[in-house]
What does this fold into?
Amino acid sequence: MPLKLDPMPMLTAVALCALLLVAAGTARAESPETLAEQAAAQAAESETALRPAPQGVPAGVLGGPLFVGVDDAAISTYRIDPGTNTATPQFTGFQAWGAAYDPVGDQVYFNSGSTLYVWPVGGAVATVGTIVDGAGAAQSMVGLAFHNGTLYGTKNIANEAIWSIDTTTAVATVHIDYVDADLDCGGLAVDPTTGDFYCTNDDSTPHGAGLVRINPDASVTFIAAYPPGQTDIDGLAIGGGRAYLVIDEPGDIYVWDFGTAAYVTPLSSPWTTSETFSAGAWIVEAPVAPAISLVKTVGTDPAVCAVTSQITVPPGTTVFYCYTVTNTGDVTLSTHDLVDSELGPIFTALPYPLMPGASAFWAPEEAVIVTTTTNTATWTAYTPGVGEASAEASATVEVEAPSVLEIPTLGPVGAAALALGLAGLGLGVLRRRRT
It folds into this structure.
């Protein structure tokens, strides 16, 4: 079973440091859960945390847009449909402290302490590397966000700030440096429509515990207090005009509606045990757009697909039609129908996985042509439950007109020449004698 760091053995030392700072008049009062989170972060930066080894993950199944996880590698991540409150398991084997979705790459970045991972949605998790600063020191993030091609993270130990993280090198640099003692950000997210940074702040002073906006000048705008009974929320996702405050224990995932400036009906947390960290991200699903193109050609060689869609042949010629379909959409099409206006149905519900960008052809279909004919084919490709697309294409066979023996018309000169010729052959032209 993958191992999970137990922060409690280190808690005493962290608490002692906190007491010394209190004596110096510089520390803020921290809850036991916050101290446990800080201890875990410090352990991760010191490379003493026990992490599961990277491993292959079975392909995930589809689910809702809200992605959530916790810092227990034995517990599955989930995708939750806010419309139905249905949680669908995705993958296990990794801790998730923070998470962020990259819509261009269709992938979720998540981290366990200072280790950064990437999950192509529905694929296998890969390790990006250890998050470090410019000097090479490990930096343990507790929240992640992604916007306009950049990954961001936030820390709960010094230097507490919003950091930008290079997704190739995993090198982090400070982006917005707010006052450490003013915020304790567990969850981090960016509003995709405004580009504003939000965090779930566990510090009660000076701004208040709850959802806050961190402005570019490092000032803080208070948005909403935590719901009653909540003092520590570590996951945050923003999408569809709402913020989702993801807890790390059984209970509710709270939903803040920016439009009405109020909490609305919460979602159910999928967790059955209490953990230390939780992560959230909003997966923006692009609309499925199935599409195909079709080319129909005709020729006289049954061994090859012709390249022409129009030919001329003598009457009674056998011709051969070829149909080439290309998936021009963004979803694999698994089943196919083809019907020809002159030949009738050619196949129905033919199973063949046609991936985006791929082409396939069907040949030959033969016919004996006696008159000029234009055939129109309709190819329909679909994946049940996902969508379908259809396309039409035509081919024309023109039939040559039969040959006709032409008799020339004789003018006066021609008639005279014909008469002389006949006389030379002993043939004469009967004339009526005059009397």
Observations:
- Residues 305 and 322 are 6 Å apart (CA to CA).
- The radius of gyration is 38 Å.
- Residues 1-27, 48-60, 421-435 have pLDDT under 50 and may be disordered.
